[in-house]
Design brief:
Layout lengths: L4 E5 L10 H15 L7 E5 L2 E5 L5 H8 L5 E10 L3 H14 L5 E8 L8 H15 L4 E2 L6 E7 L4 E4 L3 E5 L8 E5 L5 H11 L3 E8 L6 H14 L6 E7 L1 H10 L5 H20 L4 E2 L12 H8 L6 E2 L7 H10 L3 H4 L6 H4 L11 H9 L4 H9 L2 E5 L14
Parallel strand pairs: 5-6, 5-7, 10-11, 10-13, 11-12, 13-14
Antiparallel strand pairs: 1-3, 1-4, 2-3, 4-8, 4-9, 7-8, 12-15
Helix pairs in contact: 3-4, 7-8, 8-9
Bound molecules: adenosine-5'-triphosphate and magnesium ion.
């Protein structure tokens, strides 16, 4: 015997009223995308649930993939049998013996198909007695069992499921539109992207690089980070902006203490251009208030002036420790700490203004014309689309 299904429960989505149907279709679609390398797998919807039919594929491997998908409240491995008492008994026994280390158990029967002749409560007893008499060393514990064997007797079949594995929660990626993630090589922005995805937002990324001051390896680092994000969505398109000339112009022409602010404003302006071209309605950054001297309210206010696109800042309320914790769980931390410089760390002004003002920055920017340089940067954008599925990680059951 072997688990032949994965049962998927979606929590929050079930509450979403009118949008419910499209959320469910999106989830099914995302599952299909993540599992496309397994040709025999099929995905079926039934009331309030989804089933992944393994058709011979390794249950654990497929489970690891499914666990990465937003919009899932919990998952269980399941065996499907006919609505026959003897078949149900055999499968329940197999499930119990298959669970490593379990010594106490509880049976929970849900009889959804009222044509099945034995009522739920009585079936609990029938199965409990069968399991006790067929094994040695197991006991029943209804309050705190090592294993709860759930038996759902539905119209079409009976499903026996193993323990409940928590999913990532959130909403299926693609159900809340798209955002442009400003992706540096740091720790924060990939986490910000992950959290935007958790709310169902599809992510495209933009990265500003300044060759030859920043190396190929710095660029590769960003692509590797984006690749990690594909574990949670279908694909991530990365726009790589050649930023050298803009930066050089800023650092030559603008006052040193405003260079950082102006550089950020240029990033926003160029990002907005990408949003317009790609029909993306928002941007996302890894900013978190007060984390570094440049992330003050004044700074945010001054940088934000150049765009009226909404800017999502999923990390704004988080402590660095918590951000690092997530980056480890989504496996971006080790990539983020690779020592390659990005454009911001190379052109660092000696004393960046921590409280810049809009008036001042507008005055400075009016002294020179950036439009040609911005056009040149936009027309030099290189696009890399990542679709890779670089191995699902198994780490984040306790994350949310
Ligand atoms: P991170 O860890 O994400 O680099 P940070 O703590 O270093 O963040 P800043 O350097 O102030 O913070 O950058 C703030 C945000 O600006 C980043 O989180 C990112 O969204 C964006 N950003 C910074 N540099 C770049 C870049 N080279 N390309 C794209 N976005 C960038
Ligand atoms: Mg950074």
């Amino acid at each position: 015997m072997q688990y032949d299904h994965i049962l998927i429960r979606y929590g929050e989505m079930a509450l979403k009223g009118k949008n419910r149907k499209s959320f469910i279709l999106q989830l099914q679609n995302n599952l299909r995308q993540q599992l496309q390398e397994f040709p025999n797998v099929t995905i079926k919807r039934t009331q309030g649930r989804m089933f992944v039919l393994l058709n011979g594929h390794d249950p654990e491997v497929i489970m690891d993939k499914c666990k990465n998908i937003f919009g899932i409240q919990s998952l269980s491995l399941a065996i499907k049998v006919r609505n026959e008492e003897e078949e149900i008994k055999a499968a329940a026994l197999w499930a119990l013996q298959n669970e490593q280390g379990a010594r106490t158990f509880k049976v929970s029967v849900k009889r959804i198909d009222k044509n099945f002749p034995i009522r739920s409560q009585q079936m609990n007893q029938v199965l409990g007695a069968h399991l006790l008499s067929s094994t040695i060393g197991y006991t029943v514990d209804v309050h705190n069992p090592d294993m709860e064997i759930k038996v759902e007797i539905r119209k079409e079949a009976t499903y026996i499921t193993s323990s409940v594995i928590p999913g990532l929660g959130g909403l299926p990626v693609g159900s809340s539109g798209k955002t442009l993630l400003l992706l540096s090589g740091g720790i924060d922005s990939p986490v910000a992207g992950f959290l935007a995805m958790k709310r169902g937002v599809e992510v495209e990324a933009v990265h500003f690089h300044s060759p030859p001051f920043t190396s190929e390896r710095a660029k590769q680092k960003v692509l590797d980070l984006a690749e990690k994000l594909t574990n949670y969505g279908n694909k991530v398109k990365v726009h790589i902006v050649p930023f050298t000339k803009v930066q050089q112009h800023i650092f030559r022409e603008m006052p040193d203490n405003y260079a950082m602010t102006i550089m950020r404003r240029m990033m926003m302006r160029i990002s907005e251009r990408i949003c317009k071209n790609e029909s993306i309605l928002s941007m996302t950054t890894g900013e978190s208030l007060g984390q570094v001297a440049s992330q003050t309210m004044e700074s945010m206010n001054t940088i934000n002036e150049v765009t009226n696109y909404p800017i999502l800042r999923p990390l704004v309320a988080m402590d660095k420790d918590d951000i690092v914790k997530i980056s480890r769980k989504i496996d971006t931390y080790d990539i983020s700490i690779r020592p390659y410089e990005d454009c911001c760390t190379i052109f660092v002004p000696k004393s960046p203004k921590t409280r810049p003002s809009r008036e001042k920055v507008n005055e400075f920017e009016a002294q020179t014309d950036f439009s040609g340089l911005i056009e040149e940067a936009v027309s030099g954008i290189e696009v890399v689309t990542l679709t890779g599925k670089a191995g699902a990680e198994e780490k984040f059951n306790d994350l949310f």
